Amino acid sequence: MSEQGGHQGLAKGALSALESTIMGIAGTSPAFTVAVTTGTIYAAIGPLSVGSLLYSGVIMLGIMFAFAKLNRVMPDAGAAFAWVGKVFGPTWGFFAGWGLMVASVVFMVSATLPAATATLLLLAPAEVENTPLVTAIAAVWLTLVTWIVLRGIKHASTAQVIVTVIEAVIVVALLGAAVVWFGGHPAHVPSAAWIAPGSFTFKSFADGAIVSVFFYWGWDVTMNLGEETEPEDASKGAFWAMINLIVFFVILMTVVLIALSDKEIAEANTNVLYAISAKIFPAPWSYLVVLATVLSTVGALETQILQFSRSMFSMARAGVLHPRYAAVHREWQTPWAATLVIWGLGLVLLFAASYMPSVAAILESSIEAIGLQICFYMGLTGYASAWHFRDLLRTDLREAFTHVVMPLIGALFMTSVAAWVIPTFSPIVLTVGIGGLALGFIPLSIGWWRNRQGGVAAA
Asked: Are 113 and 411 in contact (CB under 8 A)?
Protein backbone atom coordinates (compact mmCIF):
# COMPACT_ATOMS: atom_id res chain seq x y z
CA MET A 1 0.00 0.00 0.00
CA SER A 2 2.78 2.44 0.82
CA GLU A 3 6.45 2.99 1.03
CA GLN A 4 8.49 5.23 3.23
CA GLY A 5 10.00 8.56 2.39
CA GLY A 6 13.23 7.26 0.91
CA HIS A 7 11.40 5.27 -1.76
CA GLN A 8 8.18 7.14 -2.41
CA GLY A 9 8.03 10.90 -1.97
CA LEU A 10 5.39 13.59 -2.01
CA ALA A 11 4.04 15.04 -5.27
CA LYS A 12 6.85 17.38 -6.29
CA GLY A 13 5.87 20.72 -7.84
CA ALA A 14 2.16 19.88 -7.86
CA LEU A 15 0.95 23.34 -6.76
CA SER A 16 1.28 26.71 -8.53
CA ALA A 17 1.89 30.10 -6.90
CA LEU A 18 -1.83 30.92 -7.21
CA GLU A 19 -2.85 27.66 -5.57
CA SER A 20 -0.29 28.30 -2.84
CA THR A 21 -1.74 31.78 -2.23
CA ILE A 22 -5.27 30.39 -1.99
CA MET A 23 -4.05 27.70 0.41
CA GLY A 24 -2.46 30.41 2.58
CA ILE A 25 -5.63 32.53 2.64
CA ALA A 26 -7.88 29.54 3.26
CA GLY A 27 -5.53 28.34 6.00
CA THR A 28 -6.56 31.26 8.21
CA SER A 29 -10.24 30.53 7.48
CA PRO A 30 -11.26 34.23 7.28
CA ALA A 31 -15.04 33.86 7.65
CA PHE A 32 -14.74 31.25 10.40
CA THR A 33 -12.07 33.21 12.26
CA VAL A 34 -14.07 36.43 12.30
CA ALA A 35 -17.26 34.57 13.20
CA VAL A 36 -15.87 32.75 16.23
CA THR A 37 -13.06 35.06 17.40
CA THR A 38 -14.50 38.57 17.13
CA GLY A 39 -16.32 38.21 20.44
CA THR A 40 -13.09 37.15 22.16
CA ILE A 41 -10.93 40.00 20.89
CA TYR A 42 -13.68 42.59 21.32
CA ALA A 43 -14.29 41.52 24.90
CA ALA A 44 -10.57 42.00 25.55
CA ILE A 45 -9.89 45.40 23.94
CA GLY A 46 -13.09 46.75 22.37
CA PRO A 47 -12.79 48.88 19.19
CA LEU A 48 -9.00 48.71 19.44
CA SER A 49 -9.48 45.28 17.82
CA VAL A 50 -9.10 47.02 14.45
CA GLY A 51 -5.70 48.45 15.32
CA SER A 52 -4.60 45.21 16.95
CA LEU A 53 -5.29 43.29 13.74
CA LEU A 54 -3.45 45.90 11.68
CA TYR A 55 -0.29 46.07 13.79
CA SER A 56 -0.20 42.36 14.59
CA GLY A 57 -0.55 41.64 10.88
CA VAL A 58 2.37 43.90 9.99
CA ILE A 59 4.53 42.27 12.65
CA MET A 60 3.41 38.84 11.45
CA LEU A 61 4.90 39.81 8.09
CA GLY A 62 8.27 39.47 9.79
CA ILE A 63 7.51 35.86 10.65
CA MET A 64 6.27 35.34 7.09
CA PHE A 65 9.61 36.57 5.76
CA ALA A 66 11.41 34.15 8.08
CA PHE A 67 9.42 31.22 6.70
CA ALA A 68 9.72 32.36 3.09
CA LYS A 69 13.48 32.98 3.19
CA LEU A 70 14.25 29.72 4.99
CA ASN A 71 12.00 27.83 2.58
CA ARG A 72 13.97 29.09 -0.39
CA VAL A 73 17.22 27.64 0.90
CA MET A 74 15.82 24.60 2.77
CA PRO A 75 12.42 23.51 1.37
CA ASP A 76 11.03 20.82 3.66
CA ALA A 77 7.54 19.53 4.48
CA GLY A 78 8.44 19.91 8.15
CA ALA A 79 9.04 23.67 7.75
CA ALA A 80 9.65 25.01 11.30
CA PHE A 81 10.81 21.59 12.51
CA ALA A 82 13.44 21.29 9.79
CA TRP A 83 14.70 24.86 9.89
CA VAL A 84 14.88 25.32 13.66
CA GLY A 85 16.54 21.90 13.95
CA LYS A 86 19.13 22.87 11.35
CA VAL A 87 19.94 26.16 13.06
CA PHE A 88 19.52 25.44 16.79
CA GLY A 89 19.77 21.66 17.00
CA PRO A 90 17.38 18.68 16.87
CA THR A 91 15.73 19.20 20.27
CA TRP A 92 14.61 22.75 19.50
CA GLY A 93 13.61 21.59 16.03
CA PHE A 94 11.51 18.81 17.50
CA PHE A 95 9.61 21.18 19.77
CA ALA A 96 9.04 23.67 16.95
CA GLY A 97 7.40 20.89 14.95
CA TRP A 98 5.61 19.54 18.01
CA GLY A 99 4.19 22.98 18.83
CA LEU A 100 2.59 23.18 15.39
CA MET A 101 1.26 19.63 15.63
CA VAL A 102 -0.31 20.21 19.05
CA ALA A 103 -1.92 23.44 17.84
CA SER A 104 -3.31 21.60 14.82
CA VAL A 105 -4.85 18.87 16.97
CA VAL A 106 -6.38 21.39 19.37
CA PHE A 107 -7.72 23.22 16.34
CA MET A 108 -9.84 20.18 15.56
CA VAL A 109 -12.06 21.42 18.41
CA SER A 110 -11.94 25.09 17.37
CA ALA A 111 -12.82 24.37 13.74
CA THR A 112 -15.09 21.36 13.60
CA LEU A 113 -17.47 22.49 16.33
CA PRO A 114 -18.38 25.79 14.59
CA ALA A 115 -18.82 23.85 11.33
CA ALA A 116 -21.22 21.54 13.10
CA THR A 117 -23.04 24.41 14.82
CA ALA A 118 -23.42 26.24 11.52
CA THR A 119 -24.67 23.05 9.87
CA LEU A 120 -27.36 22.72 12.52
CA LEU A 121 -28.21 26.40 12.15
CA LEU A 122 -29.03 25.62 8.52
CA LEU A 123 -30.82 22.31 9.08
CA ALA A 124 -32.10 22.22 12.68
CA PRO A 125 -31.73 25.59 14.48
CA ALA A 126 -33.35 24.31 17.67
CA GLU A 127 -30.47 21.87 18.19
CA VAL A 128 -27.51 24.28 18.04
CA GLU A 129 -26.93 23.97 21.82
CA ASN A 130 -27.17 20.17 21.77
CA THR A 131 -23.51 19.47 22.49
CA PRO A 132 -23.55 15.68 21.82
CA LEU A 133 -25.22 16.24 18.44
CA VAL A 134 -22.83 19.08 17.60
CA THR A 135 -19.90 16.82 18.44
CA ALA A 136 -21.22 13.98 16.27
CA ILE A 137 -21.68 16.25 13.25
CA ALA A 138 -18.21 17.71 13.84
CA ALA A 139 -16.80 14.18 13.68
CA VAL A 140 -18.50 13.67 10.32
CA TRP A 141 -16.97 16.86 8.93
CA LEU A 142 -13.53 15.88 10.21
CA THR A 143 -13.80 12.47 8.56
CA LEU A 144 -14.95 13.91 5.23
CA VAL A 145 -12.14 16.48 5.06
CA THR A 146 -9.55 13.87 6.06
CA TRP A 147 -10.69 11.68 3.17
CA ILE A 148 -10.27 14.55 0.69
CA VAL A 149 -6.75 15.26 1.97
CA LEU A 150 -5.82 11.58 1.80
CA ARG A 151 -6.76 11.36 -1.88
CA GLY A 152 -3.93 13.67 -3.00
CA ILE A 153 -2.70 17.26 -2.90
CA LYS A 154 -4.40 18.16 -6.20
CA HIS A 155 -7.73 16.93 -4.84
CA ALA A 156 -7.16 19.00 -1.71
CA SER A 157 -6.14 22.06 -3.74
CA THR A 158 -9.14 21.83 -6.07
CA ALA A 159 -11.53 21.53 -3.12
CA GLN A 160 -9.81 24.47 -1.44
CA VAL A 161 -10.10 26.72 -4.49
CA ILE A 162 -13.81 25.95 -4.86
CA VAL A 163 -14.78 26.57 -1.22
CA THR A 164 -12.57 29.68 -0.94
CA VAL A 165 -14.04 31.33 -4.05
CA ILE A 166 -17.62 30.69 -2.88
CA GLU A 167 -16.77 31.93 0.63
CA ALA A 168 -15.12 35.08 -0.74
CA VAL A 169 -18.07 35.98 -2.98
CA ILE A 170 -20.55 35.64 -0.12
CA VAL A 171 -18.48 37.54 2.45
CA VAL A 172 -17.54 40.39 0.09
CA ALA A 173 -21.21 40.76 -0.87
CA LEU A 174 -22.12 40.90 2.83
CA LEU A 175 -19.46 43.55 3.49
CA GLY A 176 -20.72 45.72 0.67
CA ALA A 177 -24.33 45.38 1.80
CA ALA A 178 -23.38 46.20 5.41
CA VAL A 179 -21.54 49.37 4.42
CA VAL A 180 -24.54 50.56 2.39
CA TRP A 181 -27.07 49.52 5.04
CA PHE A 182 -25.34 50.80 8.18
CA GLY A 183 -23.03 53.51 6.79
CA GLY A 184 -25.50 56.28 7.56
CA HIS A 185 -26.26 55.14 11.11
CA PRO A 186 -23.30 53.03 12.34
CA ALA A 187 -23.46 51.18 15.66
CA HIS A 188 -19.93 52.43 16.26
CA VAL A 189 -18.82 55.59 14.47
CA PRO A 190 -15.46 54.87 12.79
CA SER A 191 -12.62 56.68 14.52
CA ALA A 192 -8.91 57.13 13.98
CA ALA A 193 -8.54 56.22 17.66
CA TRP A 194 -9.23 52.60 16.70
CA ILE A 195 -5.80 52.37 15.06
CA ALA A 196 -3.88 55.17 16.78
CA PRO A 197 -0.74 53.80 18.48
CA GLY A 198 -1.34 56.15 21.40
CA SER A 199 -4.66 54.45 22.13
CA PHE A 200 -2.89 51.29 23.26
CA THR A 201 -1.29 50.46 26.56
CA PHE A 202 1.16 47.57 26.66
CA LYS A 203 -1.52 45.46 28.34
CA SER A 204 -4.23 46.19 25.77
CA PHE A 205 -1.81 45.58 22.92
CA ALA A 206 -0.68 42.24 24.36
CA ASP A 207 -4.23 41.15 25.20
CA GLY A 208 -5.32 41.89 21.65
CA ALA A 209 -2.20 40.43 20.07
CA ILE A 210 -2.60 36.93 21.53
CA VAL A 211 -6.00 36.71 19.81
CA SER A 212 -4.78 38.46 16.65
CA VAL A 213 -2.11 35.77 16.34
CA PHE A 214 -4.93 33.23 16.09
CA PHE A 215 -6.63 35.36 13.40
CA TYR A 216 -3.55 35.15 11.17
CA TRP A 217 -2.50 31.59 11.92
CA GLY A 218 -2.69 29.14 9.04
CA TRP A 219 -1.00 30.98 6.16
CA ASP A 220 2.17 28.97 6.88
CA VAL A 221 0.58 25.86 5.37
CA THR A 222 2.18 27.19 2.17
CA MET A 223 5.55 26.31 3.69
CA ASN A 224 4.52 22.82 4.80
CA LEU A 225 3.59 22.25 1.18
CA GLY A 226 7.02 23.50 0.12
CA GLU A 227 8.06 20.10 -1.24
CA GLU A 228 4.84 19.97 -3.28
CA THR A 229 5.33 23.51 -4.61
CA GLU A 230 8.30 25.18 -6.30
CA PRO A 231 10.20 27.06 -3.54
CA GLU A 232 9.78 30.41 -5.28
CA ASP A 233 6.04 29.82 -5.75
CA ALA A 234 5.59 28.80 -2.10
CA SER A 235 7.29 31.99 -0.92
CA LYS A 236 5.18 34.13 -3.26
CA GLY A 237 2.07 32.35 -2.02
CA ALA A 238 2.90 33.13 1.60
CA PHE A 239 3.59 36.81 0.85
CA TRP A 240 0.42 37.50 -1.12
CA ALA A 241 -1.69 35.51 1.31
CA MET A 242 -0.47 37.68 4.18
CA ILE A 243 -1.03 40.96 2.33
CA ASN A 244 -4.57 39.97 1.42
CA LEU A 245 -5.30 38.79 4.95
CA ILE A 246 -4.14 42.00 6.64
CA VAL A 247 -6.35 44.12 4.39
CA PHE A 248 -9.29 41.74 4.69
CA PHE A 249 -9.26 41.39 8.47
CA VAL A 250 -8.93 45.13 9.11
CA ILE A 251 -11.82 45.92 6.75
CA LEU A 252 -13.97 43.10 8.06
CA MET A 253 -13.48 44.05 11.71
CA THR A 254 -14.30 47.66 10.90
CA VAL A 255 -17.54 46.59 9.19
CA VAL A 256 -18.47 44.40 12.17
CA LEU A 257 -18.17 47.42 14.46
CA ILE A 258 -20.17 49.60 12.09
CA ALA A 259 -22.95 47.02 11.91
CA LEU A 260 -23.22 45.65 15.46
CA SER A 261 -23.51 47.21 18.91
CA ASP A 262 -21.55 45.98 21.91
CA LYS A 263 -24.58 44.00 23.09
CA GLU A 264 -25.12 42.44 19.67
CA ILE A 265 -21.49 41.36 19.40
CA ALA A 266 -21.68 39.72 22.83
CA GLU A 267 -24.98 37.99 22.06
CA ALA A 268 -23.80 36.81 18.63
CA ASN A 269 -21.21 34.59 20.35
CA THR A 270 -19.76 32.49 17.49
CA ASN A 271 -22.13 33.79 14.80
CA VAL A 272 -21.04 37.42 14.32
CA LEU A 273 -21.35 37.37 10.53
CA TYR A 274 -24.78 35.79 10.71
CA ALA A 275 -25.85 38.50 13.17
CA ILE A 276 -24.97 41.12 10.53
CA SER A 277 -26.63 39.17 7.74
CA ALA A 278 -29.84 38.68 9.74
CA LYS A 279 -30.13 42.47 10.22
CA ILE A 280 -29.98 43.05 6.47
CA PHE A 281 -31.45 40.08 4.63
CA PRO A 282 -34.61 38.05 5.20
CA ALA A 283 -34.43 34.26 5.45
CA PRO A 284 -33.30 32.20 3.64
CA TRP A 285 -30.85 34.72 2.14
CA SER A 286 -29.48 35.57 5.56
CA TYR A 287 -28.29 31.97 5.85
CA LEU A 288 -25.88 32.29 2.93
CA VAL A 289 -23.25 33.68 5.29
CA VAL A 290 -23.70 30.57 7.45
CA LEU A 291 -22.81 28.54 4.39
CA ALA A 292 -19.72 30.73 3.94
CA THR A 293 -18.72 30.04 7.54
CA VAL A 294 -19.13 26.30 7.05
CA LEU A 295 -17.02 26.38 3.88
CA SER A 296 -14.40 28.56 5.57
CA THR A 297 -14.19 26.14 8.47
CA VAL A 298 -13.85 23.16 6.15
CA GLY A 299 -11.02 24.96 4.34
CA ALA A 300 -9.20 25.62 7.60
CA LEU A 301 -9.65 22.01 8.68
CA GLU A 302 -8.09 20.86 5.45
CA THR A 303 -5.02 23.10 5.79
CA GLN A 304 -4.44 22.08 9.40
CA ILE A 305 -4.60 18.40 8.50
CA LEU A 306 -2.09 19.17 5.74
CA GLN A 307 0.22 20.99 8.16
CA PHE A 308 0.08 18.28 10.80
CA SER A 309 0.55 15.39 8.38
CA ARG A 310 3.45 17.04 6.52
CA SER A 311 5.18 17.94 9.78
CA MET A 312 4.78 14.43 11.19
CA PHE A 313 5.95 12.95 7.87
CA SER A 314 9.09 15.09 7.91
CA MET A 315 9.84 14.31 11.57
CA ALA A 316 9.43 10.58 10.93
CA ARG A 317 11.56 10.76 7.79
CA ALA A 318 14.29 12.40 9.86
CA GLY A 319 14.07 9.64 12.46
CA VAL A 320 12.74 11.86 15.23
CA LEU A 321 9.40 10.02 15.24
CA HIS A 322 8.78 6.39 14.34
CA PRO A 323 9.46 5.68 10.62
CA ARG A 324 5.92 4.30 10.18
CA TYR A 325 4.62 7.87 10.09
CA ALA A 326 6.73 8.60 7.00
CA ALA A 327 4.64 6.13 4.98
CA VAL A 328 3.46 7.63 1.67
CA HIS A 329 0.61 6.21 -0.41
CA ARG A 330 1.87 4.86 -3.74
CA GLU A 331 -0.93 6.32 -5.84
CA TRP A 332 -2.07 9.39 -3.93
CA GLN A 333 1.46 10.50 -2.87
CA THR A 334 0.18 11.63 0.52
CA PRO A 335 1.53 10.75 3.98
CA TRP A 336 -1.44 8.53 4.76
CA ALA A 337 -0.27 7.26 8.14
CA ALA A 338 0.34 10.75 9.53
CA THR A 339 -2.99 11.94 8.11
CA LEU A 340 -4.86 9.16 9.88
CA VAL A 341 -3.10 10.07 13.14
CA ILE A 342 -4.55 13.58 13.24
CA TRP A 343 -7.96 12.23 12.25
CA GLY A 344 -7.88 9.81 15.19
CA LEU A 345 -6.55 12.38 17.65
CA GLY A 346 -9.13 14.89 16.46
CA LEU A 347 -11.98 12.46 17.11
CA VAL A 348 -10.71 11.63 20.60
CA LEU A 349 -10.33 15.30 21.50
CA LEU A 350 -13.75 16.17 20.08
CA PHE A 351 -15.59 13.62 22.18
CA ALA A 352 -13.53 14.44 25.28
CA ALA A 353 -14.31 18.13 24.82
CA SER A 354 -18.04 17.36 24.60
CA TYR A 355 -18.00 16.91 28.37
CA MET A 356 -17.10 20.57 28.91
CA PRO A 357 -20.02 22.82 29.98
CA SER A 358 -20.66 24.38 26.59
CA VAL A 359 -19.38 24.74 23.07
CA ALA A 360 -18.42 28.35 23.80
CA ALA A 361 -16.17 27.29 26.69
CA ILE A 362 -14.42 24.79 24.45
CA LEU A 363 -13.81 27.40 21.78
CA GLU A 364 -12.52 30.02 24.19
CA SER A 365 -10.03 27.63 25.78
CA SER A 366 -8.86 26.37 22.41
CA ILE A 367 -8.28 29.80 20.89
CA GLU A 368 -6.13 31.02 23.78
CA ALA A 369 -4.15 27.78 24.02
CA ILE A 370 -3.51 27.72 20.28
CA GLY A 371 -2.33 31.35 20.43
CA LEU A 372 0.34 30.33 22.93
CA GLN A 373 1.51 27.41 20.79
CA ILE A 374 1.63 29.60 17.69
CA CYS A 375 3.81 32.13 19.50
CA PHE A 376 6.16 29.30 20.47
CA TYR A 377 6.85 27.67 17.11
CA MET A 378 6.62 30.80 14.98
CA GLY A 379 8.85 32.71 17.40
CA LEU A 380 11.47 29.97 17.21
CA THR A 381 11.38 30.15 13.40
CA GLY A 382 11.85 33.92 13.49
CA TYR A 383 14.91 33.54 15.71
CA ALA A 384 16.23 30.77 13.43
CA SER A 385 16.00 33.01 10.37
CA ALA A 386 17.70 35.92 12.11
CA TRP A 387 20.56 33.72 13.28
CA HIS A 388 20.96 31.74 10.05
CA PHE A 389 21.19 34.86 7.87
CA ARG A 390 23.01 37.07 10.39
CA ASP A 391 26.05 37.53 8.12
CA LEU A 392 23.87 39.62 5.80
CA LEU A 393 24.09 42.41 8.36
CA ARG A 394 27.71 42.86 7.23
CA THR A 395 27.28 42.20 3.52
CA ASP A 396 23.80 43.27 2.35
CA LEU A 397 21.69 45.52 4.57
CA ARG A 398 18.76 45.47 2.14
CA GLU A 399 18.52 41.69 2.23
CA ALA A 400 19.21 41.70 5.97
CA PHE A 401 16.01 43.69 6.55
CA THR A 402 13.76 40.85 5.34
CA HIS A 403 16.01 37.96 6.38
CA VAL A 404 17.15 39.17 9.82
CA VAL A 405 15.57 42.38 11.12
CA MET A 406 11.87 41.74 10.44
CA PRO A 407 12.01 38.07 11.49
CA LEU A 408 13.73 39.10 14.72
CA ILE A 409 11.09 41.75 15.44
CA GLY A 410 8.38 39.17 14.78
CA ALA A 411 10.05 36.64 17.07
CA LEU A 412 10.48 39.18 19.89
CA PHE A 413 6.82 40.13 19.46
CA MET A 414 5.75 36.48 19.78
CA THR A 415 7.93 35.95 22.85
CA SER A 416 6.75 39.14 24.58
CA VAL A 417 3.07 38.40 23.97
CA ALA A 418 3.39 34.85 25.29
CA ALA A 419 5.31 35.97 28.38
CA TRP A 420 2.72 38.64 29.15
CA VAL A 421 -0.41 36.53 28.81
CA ILE A 422 0.71 33.25 30.41
CA PRO A 423 0.10 34.51 34.00
CA THR A 424 -3.43 35.55 33.00
CA PHE A 425 -4.48 32.17 31.57
CA SER A 426 -6.97 29.88 33.26
CA PRO A 427 -5.88 26.40 34.41
CA ILE A 428 -7.64 24.85 31.38
CA VAL A 429 -5.77 27.08 28.94
CA LEU A 430 -2.44 26.43 30.65
CA THR A 431 -3.08 22.69 30.64
CA VAL A 432 -3.90 22.66 26.94
CA GLY A 433 -1.32 25.24 25.90
CA ILE A 434 1.77 24.48 27.98
CA GLY A 435 0.82 20.93 28.92
CA GLY A 436 0.41 20.08 25.24
CA LEU A 437 3.94 21.29 24.55
CA ALA A 438 5.35 19.45 27.58
CA LEU A 439 3.88 16.18 26.34
CA GLY A 440 6.47 16.37 23.59
CA PHE A 441 9.13 15.11 26.00
CA ILE A 442 7.52 11.66 25.78
CA PRO A 443 7.92 11.07 22.01
CA LEU A 444 11.25 12.92 22.11
CA SER A 445 12.58 10.50 24.75
CA ILE A 446 11.20 7.49 22.88
CA GLY A 447 12.91 8.73 19.72
CA TRP A 448 16.24 9.12 21.53
CA TRP A 449 15.92 5.61 22.93
CA ARG A 450 14.93 4.10 19.59
CA ASN A 451 17.79 5.78 17.73
CA ARG A 452 20.25 4.78 20.43
CA GLN A 453 19.09 1.16 20.27
CA GLY A 454 19.40 1.26 16.50
CA GLY A 455 22.91 2.62 16.79
CA VAL A 456 23.88 -0.10 19.26
CA ALA A 457 22.39 -2.79 17.02
CA ALA A 458 24.24 -1.41 14.00
CA ALA A 459 27.50 -1.41 15.93
From this structure: no
Total residue count of the chain as it appears in this document: 459
As a whole number of angstroms, the distance between CA 26 and CA 164 comes to: 6
Whether 428 is in a domain gets the answer no
How many domains are contained in the chain? Answer: 1
Q: What is the pTM of this model?
A: 0.86
Per-residue pLDDT of the chain (459 residues; tens, 9 = 90+): 334 434 467 878 778 888 888 888 888 888 878 877 888 888 889 999 999 999 999 999 999 999 999 998 888 999 999 999 999 999 999 999 999 998 888 887 777 877 888 788 788 888 877 888 888 898 999 999 999 999 888 888 888 888 888 988 998 999 999 999 998 899 899 999 999 998 998 888 888 888 888 888 888 988 988 888 877 788 888 899 999 999 999 999 999 999 998 888 888 766 788 889 988 988 788 888 888 888 888 888 888 899 999 999 999 998 899 889 999 988 889 999 999 999 998 888 787 777 665 545 655 667 777 888 888 999 999 999 999 999 999 999 899 999 999 999 999 999 988 888 788 777 777 887 888 888 999 999 988 888 777 654 443
Q: Is residue 403 part of a domain?
A: no
CATH, residue 6 = 1.20.1740.10
Structural domain includes residue 289: yes
Residue range of the domain that includes 212: 2-72+107-360
Q: Is 443 inside a domain boundary?
A: no
Distance CA 17, CA 235 (A): 8
Q: What's the per-residue H, E or C state across the chain?
A: CEECCCCCCCCCCCECHHHHHHHHHHHHCHHHHHHHHHHHHHHHHHHHHHHHHHHHHHHHHHHHHHHHHHHHHCCCCCCHHHHHHHHHCHHHHHHHHHHHHHHHHHHHHHHHHHHHHHHHHHHCHHHCCCHHHHHHHHHHHHHHHHHHHHCCHHHHHHHHHHHHHHHHHHHHHHHHHHHHHHCCCCCCCCCHHHCCHHHCCHHHHHHHHHHHHHHHCCCCHHHHCHHHECHHHHHHHHHHHHHHHHHHHHHHHHHHHHHCCHHHHHHHCCCHHHHHHHHHCCCCHHHHHHHHHHHHHHHHHHHHHHHHHHHHHHHHHCCCCCHHHHCEECCCCCCHHHHHHHHHHHHHHHHHHCCCCCHHHHHHHHHHHHHHHHHHHHHHHHHHHHHHCCCHHHHCHHHHHHHHHHHHHHHHHHHHHHHHHHHHCCHHHHHHHHHHHHCCHHHHHHHHHHHHHHHHHHC
